[in-house]
Amino acid sequence: MRTLLDLILPASCAGCRASGVGWCADCAAALAGPPLRVRPRTDPGVPCWALGPYAGPGRRAVLAAKERGRRDLAEPLGLALAGGLARLRTADRPLVLVPAPSRKVAARRRGGDPVLRAAEIAVSWLPDSQMVSVLRVWWGVRDSVGLTPGARAHNLRGRITTIPACPALREIAENAEVVLVDDVLTTGATARESVRALARIGLRPRAVLVTCAA
Ligand SMILES: [Zn+2]
């Protein structure tokens, strides 16, 4: 019953459990600084950045959005993403956000894809930007929770692909900066496979930006 009520009206901050607000100013501040450069064990081949560590309010918010269906967090997490992107982007160049793919079954069970929603919100805050959701994970990929880094990389190898003839791809400007966005970066396996899939259609992300990095 508690969880059900949380879905309707968040009674407490997802980051620190302060009552009366879904995401408090202190927790928002924890993700509002300059993005941190991170180096995952599996190198995706492009610079990786995180809004914060996979700990504390950021971690709790990501888990609440992903595992507990806290849709209300898309707005503040998207805004935080926009803040990080505003610092990372090059002036006068269009920005293209590509959300990392989530396994469809997992996304459905969790009540939608929080990474996609946060990216949509981020784009709404950033001038001259668009989201291109072109990445997909093949069926049969197991949830990565509990897998070792090696098993995780093996699980994903070659399984992330792009949607064939995705119409949004035609709208990407020649000089656009592409940034892959995700909620969590742990081993780097998802980012690497995503970057590889984009490279196969001629898109080279300039950076990976995640909410939290382990
Ligand atoms: Zn809080």
Automatic annotation (TrEMBL):
Task: Please give the Gene3D superfamilies that the UniProt record associates with this protein.
Answer: 3.40.50.2020
* Protein name per its UniProtKB record: ComF family protein
Database matches in CDD domains: PRTases_typeI
Show the coiled coil region(s). Answer: none
**Family named by the database record:** Belongs to the ComF/GntX family.
